[in-house]
Structure formats: C-alpha cells, structure tokens
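ok new one. same drill as before - structure tokens go in, u give me an amino acid for every spot. 706 of them this time. try not to just spam alanines like last time pls lmao
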C-alpha cells in the first residue's frame, strides 16, 4: 500500500518523536539485555537522579501515548527494534511521498530537510537534538542512556550511539558537525565549543528549528527581528515601466548585485519589494549598521542565509552609504555585505542615498537611479493617499513641493492622524504644514530656522541690490514653469552669492527673500556640517541638500568662504587632498541642487572661482553711503527711546558704520541710558561709537569700522 504524505506539521512531528522514543528505548533495553536481562539497580550502577524503574515508566507512558496501550517489561530489545524498524520505514515512506508532492505545502521541518539537502544521518542528528525540546521526558531518557546525571540533552556521545553507530558512520560524525555541514553552516544546530572533544560537546537545535516544529505559519526568525524585516505580498508603486522591468529581471538572476540609487524617500525599497513580488519572492530588509554594531557578523550572516532560503527572499541592505563611519569604509561594501555575498548564491540588492557608489567587484552590477517623480505622478500620488483631495489642490501641492513618494505618503498619514474623524479629510493647508513638518525635521539637526520679520521696504540698500533681490524672487517663482515650457536644461535650483562688508544686510536680505516667497529659511550650522572625520562633511552636506531639494525652504550658508573656499593646487598632505575632494563635491552638488541656496561672505576674493561661475546671481552689497547711514540710524533707534534733538546726518557723516554696527551702537547706548534712567542722547551715541572704535584698536574714529 502506498504511504500517504504528511498533510500537516503535527502528524509529522508526532511520528518523528515516536521514532526517537523507540530508538532510545531499544538502546536502553539492549544494554539491560547485555547484563543478562537484569536491570542495573545496585548503588554502584544506578543513576544518582533516575533509576531503571523510572525509565521503564517513561517507556510505558510513551507507548500509551502512541498506541493507547502500555509497554511494560514484556517488551524485550528485539521486539522494540522490530517496532522501531517498521515505524522508521513508514516515516521514511511518508516523508518521501510528501517531498515528491507539492513543495509549496511541505510541513516546516520537511521544508528544512529539502531546502538544505540534509543527508539521512544529518536529518536524524537534527531530530535527536530537537526531540527533547518538544518532549522534556526525553532529557531523562538521554541522561539514563548516557549514564551522566549532568546530561541536559543531546551530545556527541549519544549521537555516536544513536546515529553514527557503525565504524564507517563514526568517521562522518566530525564532518556532519563541522563548519561546512549544512547543520552548522546554516545554524540549524549549535555545537557547544567548550569541550575539547566533540564527543562531550552539547548539540542543541537552533531556536528557529524549535519554532518550526510547532507548525506555525512560516515567518522571520524572532531572533533576527532587530536586524532584519521580512516584507512580502503585493505592493503598489508608480515607477517607470522600464525601471520595474529591469529590477524584476535582475532579481530573477542569481549572481548579481542590484544597486538602487536616489535621495531618501524616493521609493528605493518599494521598487525592490514590487520587483521581488513580481519575481515571485519576498524581501528581507537587513539593517547593516545594526549587524556591524552587534559584532557577530559571521553568526548573523549564517542565520540570514538560512532565513533567505526558508522564506525564498531577496536580501536588501538599505542605506549602505550610512553603514561606514569613515570615508574609506563608505568607499567599500560593508563587511556584513561582503560576508553575505560569500555565503549567498542568489541575488542581493543595496540602496544608496547619496551620489557616491561604493566600490563593487564581487558580482555583476545592475544599477538603477530613481529621481523625484514628475509633476503628474506626484499629483496622482497625492490623490491616491488622500482620495478626497480635489485635483487642483493636488496639483498645487505637487507644484510647490517637488518631493518623493515616501514623503508624500508620510505627510498624508501625519495630516490624517492629526485630525478627528469628524473633521473629515485634511485640507490643502493641513497637508502643506504636514509636508513642512516632515521635511524640516531632517534639517533641524544641521541647521537653525531663522525668523522673517522684515520685508523689502525695511532694507536700506542701493538700487542695484534691491533690483537684484526682486529678480531673484521672480526667478524662484517661475523657474520650474519656464524650464518646463521652454525646455531649458539643467537643475531647477537657484544659487545666490551675497558678498560685502560685515553688517551691510546680507543675512537680512536672505530672510526678506524667503518671506516674500512664503518659504522658511534655515541657516546651515557650519560647526555641525564640517567634521574632522574624512567624508563626514560630504555626508552632512548631502543630507542638507537632499532635505531642502524639493524647494520648500531656503538654505542660507553664512560665512560660506570657510566652506566654499578656494581649492589648493599645491597638495602637500592628505588634508589638502580631502579638502579639495570636499570642494569638488560641493561644486557638483550645488550645480544639481533644485532649491534656493543663498551664500554670504565678507571675503568675496576667498570664494573659489569655479563656485562663482555656478552662482545664478552674484550680488555685491556696497558700503552704505552717508544718506543710507542716516536712514539706518533713524530706523534702528526707536522714537520712544530718543532724547530730542538728534542729528542723524551728523552721525552718518562722522562715522562710517555699516548697518550691523549701527544696530550694536544703538543697543549699547540703550543699555547705558536705561541704567541711568534717562533716554538716549546724541552725546551718548557719540560716546558709545568712540568706545567701539577704541575697542577695535582704532586710533581715531575716522574710516570704516570692521
């Protein structure tokens, strides 16, 4: 009669457990028989913890569990062996029938046997290690068979007795428990390394195998939950058809490495999950930074390979350019990726956020680049995540924020979560605030938001500067439409250099531009951006530009000559070389930037000429004329604080001060007047300015103060 295949995990585990019990009972009864049929019950031979009566009771209980009858003493070793052999042949026949059937419906443990190509003895070793985890009474039986009260499960001695029980088979024991064996290589068992001899090493099943024995739905090993995430099932994404086709084809190929490059939130992981599903596989998203931080790269790698085979998944290392801590480490694939490539025979994918691609020579490379979706795709995405959003409002959001799909989804979710059910869907204002919130948090680490209290009328600048500021506003508003309609090439961004003496209004002009455009302005904190670690400055700047790329904020780099200075042609040290590399990166990144970047400098001659060529606008703030200085005194000094009369023209003619120094002089005079309980007089202003000249080493108050 043909053996029936196993339809569920429970029946299979039950049969395997019975096979183990019968084998152990046979070995123990055989030992009793060799003593002339008498059980060893004297003090010298008896176990310190368990005696033969207890073991006999365990055999009877096991027999009752399988057949409903007790075994008792009438069962000799030969009878037990006959039962074991018959049951062994039945289990093997049913196992083979199951393996010959639908592989997609295999019980979990048989899936392990098939996937990892376990030999009969390797499979028996795994089952004997696993059985005490399922039935704790087997620990007592193992302890009695080993004549060792400290025995807590399977060890090399028992395995040699139960599985590798012939001289020919004994030679295979070390091989089947060596590092090249699938049992150890894929972390199906753990061999204790404390004992010198393999015979005394404990052999434990991996907890993953114990979980599979329960017959639960196949999922990711919980022990890997902190370093990996399993993604499976259909997903939706709006990507170019050709990009999806290439990604799907690549993930069907063995021996390739797929690299998807693009800014954060552009949908790199989503594309890979969509392609993996189309290829009939899942995705195992691995956190390389956590793997490297935990240190056990080899052990985790083997566990990951085991899961990839069990789950039929493609491994993906996300954000590989964030794994390394030095410039050299980011130029190479991280050790955890290299280790997995050495063990894994299928496709592997990585995602890269920045422009620099790590050096890859281990496999053939398939490189895909994802850009921010075009206007019509962004509009469609808004209406997918917020179905009630009118088309014109979705188009307005898409035009204002050139953001990737990931930011659109997270912004919509945040806006919806912040409203009550009775409020309905979020309106365009709530969505705009949510987008700003999602993007601003990426800038706050490296920049500071500036207030924008002033408008164009508050600036005291010459006509050329004022006209340039108005032109910059028009350029920012119209840049996307003009470039699209007239097919102008290049990035949509605008870069502006504001140069001039300290205090002439460069920073204030930047805030005015932002206010008139309705945008926030962030001053980039150069102390946070510039790092002594090689490559870290480049990484920080990339984060800043990527976060501001959609054009939702204005980037302000004050004292930019310290960051965007001239490159040296006389390279005398590694510091000079890496400084030039950073400057070269900045040149390229600024040219591709799609937003508004404003750089200010007091030393225009210190800016690299190659930078100046890339600025859309180069605005020089001339030193204020006497008429401009007079107006600055009049506007800065509050009317309520003055002691009339004050001759502002005389102050302007006598002292060559920029607006910044005039502001400082007024503040200092105000503090002194407040302490004296009086208002600010012209005499007090003269006294304050004279002190400011002397504090800066000036012998007289003639000439500009700097």
């Amino acid at each position: 009669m043909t053996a029936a295949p196993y339809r569920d995990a429970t029946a299979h585990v039950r049969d395997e457990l019975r096979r183990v019990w019968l084998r152990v009972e046979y070995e123990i009864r055989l030992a009793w028989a060799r003593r002339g049929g008498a059980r060893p019950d004297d003090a010298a031979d008896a176990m310190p913890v368990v005696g033969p009566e207890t073991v006999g009771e365990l055999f009877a209980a096991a027999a009752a569990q399988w057949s409903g009858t007790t075994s008792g003493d009438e069962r000799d070793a030969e009878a037990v062996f006959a039962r074991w052999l018959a049951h062994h042949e039945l289990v093997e026949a049913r196992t083979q029938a199951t393996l010959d059937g639908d592989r997609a419906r295999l019980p979990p443990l048989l899936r392990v046997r098939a996937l990892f190509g376990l030999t009969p003895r390797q499979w028996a070793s795994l089952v004997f290690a696993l059985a005490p985890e399922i039935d704790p009474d087997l620990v007592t039986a193992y302890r009695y068979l080993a004549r060792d009260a400290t025995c807590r499960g399977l060890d090399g001695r028992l395995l040699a007795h139960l599985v590798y029980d012939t001289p020919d088979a004994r030679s295979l024991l070390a091989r089947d428990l060596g590092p090249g064996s699938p049992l150890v290589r894929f972390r199906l068992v753990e061999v204790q390394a404390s004992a010198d001899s393999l015979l005394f090493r404990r052999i434990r099943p991996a907890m993953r195998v114990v979980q599979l024995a329960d017959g639960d739905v196949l999922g990711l090993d919980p022990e890997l939950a902190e370093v990996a995430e399993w993604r499976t099932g259909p997903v939706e994404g709006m990507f170019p058809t050709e990009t999806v086709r290439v990604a799907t084809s690549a993930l069907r190929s063995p021996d390739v490495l797929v690299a998807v490059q693009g800014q954060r939130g552009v949908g790199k992981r989503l594309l890979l999950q969509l392609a993996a599903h189309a290829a009939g596989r899942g995705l195992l998203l691995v956190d390389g930074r956590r793997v490297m931080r935990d240190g056990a790269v080899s052990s985790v790698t083997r566990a990951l390979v085991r899961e990839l085979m069990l789950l039929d998944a493609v491994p993906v290392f996300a954000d590989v350019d964030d794994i390394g801590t030095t410039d050299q480490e980011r130029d190479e694939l991280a050790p955890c990726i290299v280790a997995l490539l050495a063990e894994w025979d299928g496709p592997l994918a990585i995602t890269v956020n920045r422009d620099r691609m790590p050096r890859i020579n281990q496999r053939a490379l398939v490189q895909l680049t994802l850009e921010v979706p075009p206007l019509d795709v962004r509009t469609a995405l808004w209406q997918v995540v917020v179905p009630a959003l009118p088309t014109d409002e979705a188009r307005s959001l898409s035009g204002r924020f050139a953001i990737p799909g990931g930011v659109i989804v997270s912004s919509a979710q945040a806006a919806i979560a912040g409203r009550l059910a009775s409020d309905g869907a979020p309106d365009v204002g709530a969505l705009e605030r949510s987008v700003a919130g999602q993007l601003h948090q990426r800038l706050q680490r490296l920049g500071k938001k500036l207030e924008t209290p002033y408008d164009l009328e508050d600036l005291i600048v010459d006509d050329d500067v004022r006209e340039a500021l108005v032109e910059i506003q028009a350029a920012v508003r119209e840049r996307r439409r003009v470039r699209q309609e007239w097919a102008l090439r290049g990035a949509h961004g605008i870069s502006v250099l504001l140069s001039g003496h300290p205090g002439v209004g460069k920073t204030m002009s930047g805030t005015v531009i932002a206010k008139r455009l309705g945008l926030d302005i962030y001053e980039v904190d150069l102390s946070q951006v510039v790092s002594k670690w090689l490559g870290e400055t480049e990484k920080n700047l990339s984060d800043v530009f990527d976060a501001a790329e959609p054009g939702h904020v204005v980037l302000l780099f004050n004292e930019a000559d310290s960051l965007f200075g001239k490159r040296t042609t006389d390279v005398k040290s590694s510091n000079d070389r890496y400084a030039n590399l950073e400057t070269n990166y900045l040149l390229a990144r600024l040219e591709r930037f799609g937003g508004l970047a404003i750089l200010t400098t007091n030393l225009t001659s210190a800016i690299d000429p190659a930078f100046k060529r890339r600025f859309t606008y180069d605005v020089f703030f001339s030193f204020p004329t006497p008429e401009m200085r007079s107006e600055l005194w009049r506007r800065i000094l509050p009317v309520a604080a003055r002691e009339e009369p004050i001759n502002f023209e005389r102050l302007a003619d006598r002292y060559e001060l920029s607006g910044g120094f005039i502001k400082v002089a007024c503040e200092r005079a105000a503090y002194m007047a407040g302490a004296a309980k009086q208002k600010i007089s012209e005499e007090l202003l003269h006294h304050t300015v004279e002190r400011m000249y002397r504090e800066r080493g000036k012998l007289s108050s003639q000439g500009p103060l700097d």
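Residues 375-424 form one domain. and btw Residues 568-578 have pLDDT under 50 and may be disordered.
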